[in-house]
Design goal:
The chain has 236 residues and is of the alpha/beta class. The chain is built from six helices and 16 strands. The strands form three sheets. A seven-stranded mixed sheet has the order 6-5-4-3-2-1-16, covered by helices on one side. It has a seven-stranded mixed sheet with strand order 7-8-11-12-13-14-15. The protein has a two-stranded antiparallel sheet with strand order 9-10.
Length: 236
């Protein structure tokens, strides 16, 4: 597996991931907590959350974004439309950015990259434009380079992410139906050139049928390791 050099990654079910660096910077990606059937029972987030990253506006990724950002006084990072929406709901700290850009905070460089999906925010009884869906590359000082793909299909320009950022570990959706399935995720891992895949966005609902076992079969002989962990478990 990739050497995480003091970084800890905790999978919180679905696409929600908590990351803390060796220096103590904490990042929460796609907070789907209260309505997430796979959120680990009894798990409490730490008091200190520095950044909340939103890959796109669907409810199973940002339903707890506003409340969590307010409670922890976190900086919300995302496409400008999502950050603007969050600030309209009372979030104080936001950084809107766009694909191809990099923003630095403490020991982390946050780079926004493309994703192939859709994005809309359910706001009461109306739908608000949520900008484009994205993924994030986290380049941690004296640490690993991590890639969270958000919700996406496989696309050949993932090879550009490899060339630009050289990610070592990728958090890839494998559930199928709304995202790529295991076969697509295996190809994505090859395009990205990663050593390790943490499968996400599967098993939450019956329609998400892709499994880590299928992903492993599609990656046989590649040397790419699949680290399937249960919600609440961590990679270190």
């Amino acid at each position: 597996m990739s050497d995480l050099k003091g970084t800890t990654i905790i999978w919180l079910g679905h696409a929600a991931v908590y990351i803390s660096t060796a220096k103590g910077t904490s990042i929460l990606i796609d907070p789907f907590i209260s309505a997430n059937p796979k959120y680990p029972k009894g798990h409490k987030l730490p008091e200190k959350i520095d950044l909340i990253l939103a890959t796109h506006g669907h409810g199973d990724h940002i339903s707890d974004l506003v409340d969590t950002a307010k409670k922890h006084n976190a900086i919300v990072v995302g496409i400008p439309e999502i950050v603007g929406w969050a600030q309209s709901k009372g979030v104080k700290n936001g950084v809107g950015m766009n694909m191809g850009g990099t923003w630095r905070h403490e020991d982390i460089a946050v780079s926004m990259v493309e994703a192939r999906h859709s994005s809309g925010i359910a706001d009461g009884d109306k739908s608000v434009y949520g900008g484009e869906p994205v993924g994030f590359v986290l380049t941690i000082e004296n640490g690993p380079v991590l890639y969270h793909a958000g919700d996406t299909a496989v696309f050949s320009d993932m090879q550009l992410i490899r060339e630009f950022y050289h990610p070592e570990l990728a958090m890839l959706p494998i559930g199928d139906h709304y995202t790529m399935g295991p076969k697509g995720a295996a190809l994505a891992a090859k395009f990205l050139g990663v050593k390790t895949v943490l499968p996400i966005h599967y098993g939450t609902f019956p329609i998400l049928t892709g499994t880590p076992e299928e992903l492993k079969k599609h990656l046989e002989g590649t040397g790419i390791e699949v680290k399937a962990i249960s919600p609440g478990e961590s990679l270190r």
